[in-house]
Amino acid sequence: MPIIEVRGVSKTYENPVTGRKTRTLDNVSLKAKENDFLILLGPSGCGKSTLLNIIAGLVPHDADGGEVHVEGKRVTGPNPKLMAYMFQDPVLYPWRTVLRNVEFGLEAQGLDKAVRRERAFKYLRMVGLEEFADYYPRQLSGGMAQRVAICRSLALETDIILMDEPFGALDEQSRIILGDELVEIWRKVRRTVVFVTHSLTEAVYLGERIAVFSARPGRIKVEVENHLERPRRLGEPEISRMVDTLWGHLKGESLIAIKRAPAEEERLELPQE
Amino acid sequence: MIETFKTRPALLRWTLLLATLVVWEAITRFASFNPIIVAPPSAVFQQAFLIALGDSTIPQFYANSAITIGEVVASYLITVVLGILIGLAFASSKLVCDAFEPLLLVLYAIPKIILYPLLILTLGIGVLPNIAFGVLLGVFVVIFNTSAGLRQIEPNYVRLAHSLGYGRRAIFFKVVIPAAAPTIVAGLRLGFGYTVIGVITAELLVVSVGLGSLIDYATVNYQTAQLYALVLITLAIGVAGNSLFSALERRWVK
Asked: Distance between the two ends of chain B, CA-based, in angstroms?
């Protein structure tokens, strides 16, 4: 049984001022099995991030637009016991130390202080940041901050980790290094990862399976299996070949997307305050 | 010489202050200035000392200082409570904000001093109009900073907490408040300065009680050195209040 199952999901945004409606996702179906490393790849504005948010339960899909099941249960809202969610930015709270940022998710689950501390340190050690536990976020580099964010997600010890372009704001070298670390952790702890990116190379370098999106309204154009041996090396001919194949699927869609105004509807709805 | 100052801005500051005092003293001593117009610094410091000992021509210095400090404390407490409550109302309801923000902006823009006669008429002469005028000057910056601080929170801060399963109440106390704290505290700090200005100004406008009334007393009796000394003391009280804030800010705001 798939651990994540998306069945015919659609999403339409309505601009609250103009009332103009935009369909970002159109009847998308997708499955992820346990321990999968699934990449959602597509041109900008294709709705791949929206789909990730819908899976996470952060954004509702259209009322008549399909359903999402995770571990057999229908998703109706965020479920931090089942899924950890990572943003493109680290989103660390500047008034909390590294350690207390990592603990933030565990606090919500009412875990004991000692348990929280132990769990946080376990993952800080895993990414080599234990000496920085008492630092404040402003004292960290971009790569370190994103590592802390990874820790915060891992510490929830959920079966599923959803990542929305988590390395998109980093420089290329940090991207590669963090990608390697992520794969290393994924192989060690065996979780299911769903990873959104618009980078072809990143998709091939990291993913086990790549779902390629069409331009808006997003549909899944093709799903590509990628079982190249790990550790993978950038510049290997197999990697280049696969990038080329993906580009074959994606080029037409990117040409459509690039001529369009950015979708303001992509701005995500906030929970009601 | 310049090389020494380059790395030590504090030294430059104190040197300049000291030099000003020396020149000021020299001018008043040797250029035969009328001491009623400009008092020499030595006389000012001597008077400040005498006033502090309660041994000067200024009557009831401590009683009046206590009144002023009491007025400032009362005025500031009202400013904080009122400012934060109204700021919260503005931040939590778009309707309240859209309906009343223009009114508030008009009130903020007018010179508050023209409202002072109204305060005297309604509250009489005494400490009440002084307290009210302090509130009038201090409350706006507290309102604006509180509401802006709460509204301008990084949306991802809230989304993250939401994704981790926090409810609305918990998000407000664990995320919104600490995220807005630096802006709110900045408003409270500015508000304190304005409240002090308001209280002392009010005391000077319609002379009744407080440090303002003593300053006025020294002025009309041509006791210039005492006047300068009182201004210095008032300044010191303001600076002390401000340093209290800096200390609190360092502790609370990271």
From this structure: 38
A139/chain B closest Cα distance in angstroms = 12
B93 shares contact with chain A (CB less than 8 Å): no
**Domain edges within chain A:** 1-48+58-82+192-225+257-273
pLDDT single digits (tens) B52-67:
888 888 888 899 999 9
Structure tokens at A266: 């992509």
What local confidence, expressed as pLDDT, does residue B246 receive? 82
Using the predicted structure, report yes or no on whether residue A195 has a pLDDT greater than 90: yes
CATH 3.30.70.240 fits B61-252, yes or no: no
How do the domains of chain B map onto residue ranges? 1-33, 61-252
Are A91 and B179 in contact (CB < 8 Å)? Answer: no
Q: Does B170 touch chain A (CB under 8 A)?
A: yes
Superfamily of A1-48+58-82+192-225+257-273 according to CATH: P-loop containing nucleotide triphosphate hydrolases (3.40.50.300)
The full 3-state SS of chain A, as one line of letters, equals CCCEEEEEEEEEEECCCCCCEEEEEEEEEEEECCCCEEEEECCCCCCHHHHHHHHHCCCCCCCCCCEEEECCEECCCCCCCCEEEECCCCCCCCCCCHHHHHHHHHHHCCCCHHHHHHHHHHHHHHCCCHHHCCCCHHHCCHHHHHHHHHHHHHHCCCCEEEEECCCCCCCHHHHHHHHHHHHHHHHHHCCEEEEEECCHHHHHHHCCEEEEECCCCECEEEEEECCCCCCCCCCCHHHHHHHHHHHHHHHHHHHHHHCCCCCHHHCCCCCCC
Sort out which chain B residues have CB atoms less than 8 A from A87's CB and list them: 156, 159-160
pLDDT surpassing 50 at residue A268 = no
Chain B residues in contact with A109 (beta carbon < 8 A): 165
pTM for this model (two decimals): 0.81
